[in-house]
């Protein structure tokens, strides 16, 4: 700096050259990222919001209609239904102890496996697979409350499955 706080002509040019260099570096980085994107027409974007519910969400009507009032019924109409499945022992053991898993009904039990902890975790896993598989853009899971003393932690199991089996980093 010169006297009175003014920049000397050489310093102003140096500052501008540095700015241009940083801008070129950012531009090159963005261009490299754009080259990696698959923008082809064959790569269809997932659409729709999936909705899954475990077997513990009976409708209370006895006629197959979804539970809840008009707002919840509208949600069921607007979303793509995702079929619930029971969670396997292997999936549950990613988060839970063998003692917890041993207390549960076997996954082969008809109907029972979709209404208890296996169904709650399986509902979250079915939705996870549909979203990460590209069939859906996003989703919501309606999972009935389980035993408050020893809940099944569907979100934790789904996160662990995504990391260990599907290669998701975070």
Describe this protein's structure.
- This protein is 46% helix and 7% strand.
- The chain is built from seven helices and three strands, in the order H-E-H-E-H-H-H-H-E-H.
- It has a three-stranded parallel beta sheet with strand order 2-1-3, sandwiched between helices.
- Helix 6 (117-132) packs across helix 7 (154-164).
- The chain starts with 8 loop residues before the first helix and ends in a 6-residue tail after the last helix.
- Residues 58-62 have low confidence and may be disordered.
Give the tally of β-strands. Answer: 3
Largest sheet: 3 strands, parallel
- Could you tell me the mean pLDDT? 78
Enumerate how many helices there are, as a single number: 7
Q: Specify the helix fraction band.
A: 40-55%
Topology as a string of helices (H) and strands (E)? HEHEHHHHEH
Strand content: 5-15%
Shape from CA axes?
elongated
Unreliably modeled segments: 58-62
Q: Quaternary status of these chains?
A: single chain
Strand order of the largest sheet: 2-1-3
Please tag this protein with its features.
170 residues, 7 helices, mainly alpha, elongated
Topology:
Layout: H1 9-36, E1 49-53, H2 70-78, E2 80-81, H3 89-92, H4 98-103, H5 112-115, H6 117-132, E3 138-142, H7 154-164
Helix pairs in contact: 6-7
